[in-house]
Amino acid sequence: MTEAKSDLVRLLIERGYVHQMTDAAALDALALREVVPGYIGFDPTAPSLHVGSLVQIMLLRRLQQTGHKPIVLMGGGTGKIGDPSFKDEARKLLAEDGIKANVASIKRIFERFLTFGPEGETGRASDAIMLDNAEWLDALEYIPFLREVGQHFSVNRMLSFDSVKLRLDREQSLSFLEFNYMILQAYDFRELAQRHGCRLQMGGSDQWGNIVNGVELARRMDGTEVFGITTPLITTADGGKMGKTMSGAVWLHEDQLPHFDYWQFWRNTDDRDVGRFLRLFTDLPLDEIARLEALEGAEINEAKKVLANEATAMCRGREAAEQAAETARRTFEEGASGDALPTFAAAGAVPLVDALVALGFCASKGEARRLIKQGGARVGGEKVADEAATVTPGAEPIRISAGRKHHGLLVAG
């Protein structure tokens, strides 16, 4: 398309969110003349989302920042099936009570990124709303659904989608239950268009086939023109998956990941990713980002601190970001221990391998032993080479480190 005219499309392109769009020119024109309600679906497979979902959350934030309406769709219905897209095997099916608990927990995250309207009152056109697709999917009757919706889907075409083809090419099982997921997601889009005037679905690049299905279903069943946008796969400069660390997923909820660890994840960003992550995950102006990413040598660390502060403040609050930054300063610049470091309480002497696992620095005792053997473990700043070493908590917290970037405290308890 030629240069975007709407604030929405221009902002998404400038900040690097766009991988594919259906009829970009028509969407640009629509966003220029009216408020566009747009949605992203999130299946509640855990009590918290992690950093891998943050691009999608930020997409909804950008939608609202440009005057449009975000719709957060919780997959209370589709979560009972699980999205098979680019998965090697079926997800573990969750009980209904577990799904409801996860939905309630995840809702708290979105209130930090989006502005929701007052309950039961008419708010602004751009106020975010949160819906659950169980509201309509649980009420579907099988035969009527097949007759009304199923006729619009070609099995031949569904089999050609990369998300399905990958599983079949590897001769990995794809259940009929999972195969239905793309139909239900398409139906969600059509239902949201009918109920809430939704005109846009957004998602990761692995959702392109599902989104196109929804666009075509709305057109075939109702003659409604709706649109889709996908984001590029976010990987780090070294080819790693965004949000994966030595200690596991980077959770957005503080009850699953301490503030300091969240801040430190952003602080540890590769030099080559700083500018891109500032555009995607902060609200800093583009000219300020250009200045920060142009820094070289040791000065790039200042840009990383800005990234860590801004990303943490958005997700955890400004106070949490400031506390984490101060803890990092004291830990790395003064050699002191900060209150925000992850903590492990022990009543007496404990093996160092156990402490490394308990602090989340290693996934297993075997991994902890390898870390010690390779010279990556320190107690009180001193390297420990004995895999059988124990640590005894005293009156003062003991700092335990894994490599140069991961630090925690052993305390008496």
List the helices and strands and how they pair.
Blueprint: H1 7-14, E1 20-21, H2 24-33, E2 37-42, H3 54-65, E3 69-74, H4 96-113, E4 129-132, H5 134-137, H6 142-148, H7 155-160, H8 162-169, H9 176-179, H10 181-196, E5 200-204, H11 208-222, E6 227-231, E7 244-245, E8 248-249, H12 259-267, H13 274-281, H14 286-293, H15 300-316, H16 318-334, E9 343-346, E10 350-351, H17 352-358, H18 365-373, E11 377-379, E12 382-383, E13 390-391, E14 398-402, E15 406-412
Parallel strand pairs: 2-3, 2-5, 3-4, 5-6, 9-15
Antiparallel strand pairs: 1-6, 7-8, 10-13, 11-12, 11-14, 14-15
Fourth-level CATH superfamily of the largest domain: HUPs
Please bin the fraction of helical residues: 40-55%
Report the count of strand segments. Answer: 15
What is the radius of gyration?
24 Å
Question: Would you tell me which CATH topology of the largest domain applies?
Answer: Rossmann fold
Low-confidence stretches: 86-90
Widest β-sheet, arrangement of strands: 1-6-5-2-3-4
Average residue-wise pLDDT: 86
Number of folding domains? 3
DSSP helical segment count? 18
User: Sheet with the most strands?
Assistant: 6 strands, mixed
Note the gap between the termini: 62 Å
Structural commentary:
It is an enzyme of class 6 (ligase). It catalyses: tRNA(Tyr) + L-tyrosine + ATP = L-tyrosyl-tRNA(Tyr) + AMP + diphosphate + H(+). Homodimer. One of its GO terms (molecular function) is ATP binding. InterPro entries: aa-tRNA-synth_Ic, Rossmann-like_a/b/a_fold, S4_RNA-bd, S4_RNA-bd_sf, Tyr-tRNA-ligase, Tyr-tRNA-ligase_bac-type, Tyr-tRNA-ligase_bac_1. With about 425 residues, this protein is of the alpha/beta class. It folds into three domains: about 5-230, 3-Layer(aba) Sandwich (Rossmann fold); about 260-335, Tyrosyl-Transfer RNA Synthetase; about 345-410, RNA-binding S4 domain (Structural Genomics Hypothetical 15.5 Kd Protein In mrcA-pckA Intergenic Region, Chain A, Roll). The chain has 18 helices and 15 strands. The chain has helices at about 5-15, 25-35, 55-65, 95-115, 135, 140-150, 155-160, 160-170, 175-180, 180-195, 210-220, 260-265, 275-280, 285-295, 300-315, 320-335, 350-360, 365-375; strands at about 20, 35-40, 70-75, 130, 200-205, 225-230, 245, 250, 345, 350, 375-380, 380-385, 390, 400, 405-410. The strands form four sheets. Strands 1-6-5-2-3-4 form a six-stranded mixed sheet, with helices on both faces. Strands 9-15-14-11-12 form a five-stranded mixed sheet. Helix 12 (about 260-265) packs across helix 16 (about 320-335) and helix 17 (about 350-360) crosses helix 18. The longest helix has 18 residues, at about 95-115. It starts with 6 loop residues before the first helix and ends with a strand. Mean pLDDT is about 85; it is low at about 85-90.
